[in-house]
Specification:
The structure holds two protein chains of two kinds. Chain A is an alpha/beta fold. Chain A is 35% helix and 22% strand. Chain A is built from twelve helices and twelve strands. Chain A has helices at residues 65-72, 95-102, 122-132, 139-152, 169-181, 199-216, 227-233, 251-256, 261-268, 275-280, 311-315, 334-352; strands at 15-28, 34-49, 54-58, 80-85, 88-89, 105-108, 187-191, 219-223, 236-241, 244-250, 321-324, 327-329. In chain A, the strands form two sheets. In chain A, strands 6-7-8-3-9-10-12-11 form an eight-stranded mixed beta sheet, with helices on both faces. Chain B is built from twelve helices and twelve strands. Chain B has helices at 59-67, 93-99, 111-114, 121-133, 137-150, 156-159, 169-181, 199-216, 227-233, 251-256, 261-269, 345-348, and strands spanning 15-28, 31-44, 48-52, 74-83, 86-87, 104-107, 187-191, 219-224, 236-241, 244-250, 319-322, 325-327. Chain B is of the alpha/beta class. Classes of the chains: A alpha/beta, B alpha/beta.
Amino acid sequence: MTEKSPSPASQSPLLTVRGLKVHFPVWKGMIFRRKVGAVKAVDGIDLDINSGETLGIVGESGCGKSTTGRALIQLIRPTEGTVRYKDQELTKLTERQLRPLRRDLQMVFQDPYASLNPRMTVGSIISEPIKVHGILTGRQEVQDRVEWLMEVVGLSTRYIRRYPHEFSGGQRQRIGIARALALEPRFIVADEPVSSLDVSVQAQVLNLLMELQERFKLTYLFVAHNLAVVRHISDRVAVMYLGRIVEIAPRDLVFGQPGHPYTIALLSAVPEPNPKKGANQRRVVLQGDVPSPLNPPSGCAFHPRCPFATDECRSLVPHLRELEKGHMVSCHHAEEVQHGGISGVLERVSDRC
Amino acid sequence: MTDSPTPASATDDGVLLRVVDLVTEFHTDDGVVRAVDQISFDVSSGETLGLVGESGSGKSVTNLTIMGLLPGTAKVPQGSVIYKGRELLACSEKELRAIRGREIAMIFQDPMTSLNPFLRVCRQLTEVLEVHLGMSVADARAASITMLEKVGIPDPAHRIDSYPHELSGGMRQRVMIAMALLCDPSILIADEPTTALDVTIQAQILDLMRELVGAMDTAMILVSHDLGVVAGMADRVVVMYAGKMMEEGPTERIFERPSHPYTLGLLRSIPRLDDTPQERLHSIEGLPPDPANLPPGCPFAPRCPFRMDVCLEEFPVPREVEPGHRIRCHADVGPDDAEAFWTPAEESHGMGTGGMS
């Protein structure tokens, strides 16, 4: 994989997201149903996704990273906010109007066991989108196309009449990738595409995704909780916490000079597979759990677990601001956090004890 | 915890649990599946043994066999499991019941499905103490609250009356740990204890386990597919593949000088926080074998870049590469051979050329 140069500034982003919110209403009562609240899965996200890049989204379960991915391609309709693609406002389009755009916007799902219809053969799974969108009509043409797609993702065409249960997780994920590629998409949301795979197979699928990107000039939104995986594949990385982006920057800045205390804690929590380094690894062990998105804390949502929290953090919601070029952080103390790095966080933690 | 078993009750060399040539088979419609095939290891008191392997490698079945928790379709045709000089495979269900939870305790992967959703935490904890130690209800409750405090549950006197669904994933796993440690067991078997948890919570739980196991001098068998988790916790590691032991040795040696091609490939192919991003990853080509239809010889041979003719016919007996570090492999490989797991894009699968048009 050759290094990709960042897209020139003059080029407008492929996808522009502003103020994206996805709230799931919570109802109570059987007869007199009333709304008693909302789970704020995604609570105001701004994003630009450039053509040809991989934007990684990391965060813990429940932080809204998968919901964000789905809301971008309108698999979940956002509660508020805008998603612009090719001069079209996706949130305003009807399902029918969206359909031609779905060719460009595809998804690879997390669980290759649940996302393939067990009663369809591999051939019909991959050809279904081609037929639905009427891209190819001739029987032989469709067949050729499916075989070609199977070769592209590294599946033997001998398997075309087999059913999903006959395949292992890694092979199923290849089927899911072939299906996503069938419509020649430009943008693919990959939601935890390797997390359900065995360690020895993960590298194969990651390599495949990187090759395909190079070959077909794809743009990825790569959602994952495994930081090493996200770092490996992404050009830029967004860190989410409780429905909001707390930090977004080019990969090396997020991993090298993080400006949000949560990013630092997250990075230091990754178990190190080298015992020598592991012994010297300094870890920030966050206290407490992720709060409920039903009732997020006041001010900065991270303040109850943050060693830097001040009164300002408890009352005032921080917004994403530019720490340096391309490096956005939503923290009132970002400069201090970035300057001190992990030592600074650890000092704070020990001061508070 | 007052009445911990005295170290003297262990065998002379400090070995608490000795597993020898263990074989576990499942009789299925597709034939006999050998889920565990000739696994041997020792666990000494106070030691943490890591069992590493992918899904289907037999890690969990090994532990279920030790605990005597196998389903009816399983048979153990050979091998022995000796705990403090007693053959567990020969114990009756009644004898095993006295050992399980009291002497050997287990933490399961998913804290939601392994706690009873209908019972309050209190009932589930005190039951252990009442059954095994014959404590009174009041004493058991007090001891449980102390234990919950030890595992870092805030406000344990109130939380003990919660139902499992009222607790977060991390808190539930803390309850599971508390339950396992209530009787001060000699061995704790932790089967993927943090796999269902987020990284920051995983870090909390691993810290807690390390601390408690150290303080109570409990031996531990830690099962994980995450090499990072094992690297940070285990004293010794057993690497399993397709039910068989591939490599065994002290943790630093396994990670520093992996001598089995499978271990080597596994360590080389995981993305790390300090590798070169967006570079093609080294990878183990192919797929894990079907357990009902294992290849003759070494099960890893079909995927192994160091494969020789003999590998397809014969799976070698363990041999020592250095003291205490054993492998089952015909080849001599070292860390410098990891580049063999590099496959250029064209070779890894049938990628044609030409664009998508």
